[in-house]
Amino acid sequence: MTVEEARREVRSVFMWGFPGQLVSGLVWLVSAALATWASPRYGIVALVGLGSLIFPLTQLVLRSMGRPASLSTRNPLGGLGMQVAFTIPLNLPVVAGAALYRPNWFYPACMIVVGTHYLPFVFMYGMWQFAFLGGALIAGGILVALYASGAFAPAGWLTAVVLLLFAAVAWMLASRDERASRAA
Fold first, then answer.
1. For residue 184, is pLDDT > 80?
2. What is the pLDDT at residue 57?
3. Number of C-beta neighbours around residue 145 at 10 A
4. What pLDDT sits at residue 8?
5. What share of the chain has pLDDT > 90, as a percent?
6. What is the Cα–Cα distance from 178 to 175, expressed in whole angstroms?
């Protein structure tokens, strides 16, 4: 399998990133809502707890849509996907350190970690759009931490919106790709 064939399968199976970004955006939305209307602690627990379920929930969404939920065993990019996924829990000690120093840096630190985790997706999916997503989250995390960290949840809300907007773009790309495949 060539790199381009592997990327094509990644885009096809994971619908250009649509279900993953939808699930991620909803997780961040729940977390931000809990942090805003219940307590920051509930928001943290929701993001860490539900965040650990993003991939299985993404697979559930794909299966509920009648689609395959995993790459073929021939695809060499499956291993890269797993390695990229593990960057987030491995970076949670950095997030914890930032939040212990300044609690309102929890979401900005998570934004930076999640944003950097999306950068290898540019290669894995063959999509420059993931560089934009990663860059937006990294820049947003830095800017909120530096200039708007007076409240706990704004970066959580911002991340939810960015992820859900990206999910909408990915849905449009996936729909266009499927129409083109049917026409060919």
1. no
2. 96
3. 20
4. 94
5. 90
6. 5
Q: Judge whether 117 and 84 are in contact, CB under 8 Å.
A: yes
Q: What is the DSSP letter of 104?
A: G
- CB neighbour list of residue 161: distance below 8 Å, 6 or more residues apart: 25
> What's the CA gap between 103 and 116, in Å, rounded?
21
Which CA distances in Å does 76 have to 6, 7, 88? 7, 10, 21
Q: Does the pLDDT of residue 152 top 80, yes or no?
A: yes
As a whole number of angstroms, the distance between CA 124 and CA 114 comes to 16
pLDDT digits (tens, 9 = 90+) for 42-82: 999 999 999 999 999 999 999 999 998 889 999 999 889 88
What sign for the dihedral angle of Cα 88, 122, 115, 66? negative
Confidence of residue 109 (pLDDT cuts 50, 70, 90): very high
- Nearest-5° Cα angle at 118, 113 to 121: 155
Query: Domain residue spans in the chain?
Result: 3-178
Task: Identify the CA nearest to 143 among candidates 121, 114, 112, 113.
Answer: 112
Query: Could you write out the three-class secondary structure of 2-36?
Result: CHHHHHHHHHHHCHHHHHHHHHHHHHHHHHHHHHH
Q: How far is CA 176 from CA 12, 64, 180, in A?
A: 11, 21, 6
